[in-house]
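Recall the central idea of this unit: under ordinary conditions, the amino acid sequence of a chain determines the structure it adopts. In this exercise we apply that idea directly, starting from the sequence alone.
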Amino acid sequence: MVTTRNTSTEDQTEMWRVMEQRMMEMQRKHKEEMAAVRAECLAQIAKSKDGEIGGEQGEGAGEKQTPLEGENSSARTDGREEKGNKDSRSLVKVEESTTMVTFVREIMEVHISKQFIPPQFKMYDGTSDPTAHVKSFINAMTFRTGCDAIWCRTFSLSLEGEALEWFNSLPVNSVENFKSLGEMFKKQFAACNAEDVTVVDLMNLRQGKEEPLKVFMDRYQKTIRRVKGLGLELALQYVMPALRPGPFKDSICRNPPRTMEELRQRAADEARVENMKQQYRKEAQEGRMDKSDGRKTDGQGSRSGQKNREGPRGPRFQQYTTLNTPRARILQEALSAQIMQTPLRQPTPPGADLTKRCLYHQNSGHDTEECVTLRDKIEELIHAGRLQRYIKESAPDQYTDRPSSPKWTSPR
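Accordingly, the structure predicted from this sequence is:
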């Protein structure tokens, strides 16, 4: 059975206390084991040393030892002591670092086995909650080892970016244990601590107008888990005002859930119904769009046929000015001088005469000189005083009669 955990402040404090107690217990056991190994090694060395000295005294009994022999014997004894100390250090496997490091000597003296493999950490770059990262690191390391020194020396492997730069800038011999390192880390990145969610935030929580029920319920359950000290009764009470009006809210009002599991199950059932209705609406909308596209195509075909039957649009002016330059050239020069805007390209109608090309419409079906639209544009610009240099002055009459509509070939 799945239950929702409402972690209170007392529970979190108790959890931290238990974890710290476990860590201290493991550290104590580790120190005791190391002390026992040291004592055993020293005892073996002392026993061996005493045996050698006793043997030498037995062999030299009754003989007078000269000062030179005494110095040689002393030298041999010092050599054996130095050898014994060297053997002790090799048995304890003490590691000494010659580089200036952040950790104190006691941490660096702890031997890390070559078989130790650090766990896979979630990297911290200084932009998220530092407390959550420390807890995640402790959980991962507790599974591998309880040695505090190894924790300290492994912590930098979980950092990157700005956080790793901060770690590398720590003063020499400034880290004595993992607890002090964690406190310095959390203090450095305290600005990134996650804000505590209160009951007021839960009261202001509302489902969006277009927000699916499943998405909202996930957001609601995540919020209630972050509210410290929130009871089950309040968690169930605040869900109804947070829901938008609808069938699910009515169901919650008529029959309030008794547990969070019941609320979650009922919300999941309603979400499935909601998704099914949304799929039905989508299919119906696609069907209406297909029908609309079919009617639109038919309408365009009928209007196109009607336009073709009606023929081209007639001239706008009763008289047109006689020009001294072909209209195709006037069009090019007017476009270059930005007197006329570039027209939109028109598609070539079916059945058009492909031997004729209109530069204004950029399609086939009629010549540029025959284009009624271009003729009207040029006449408008002449009346506006923009194309006066294209007027033919030698003509007795500036205007020509209105041309008859040309034979229909394509839209102009």
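The first strand starts at residue 319 and ends at 321.
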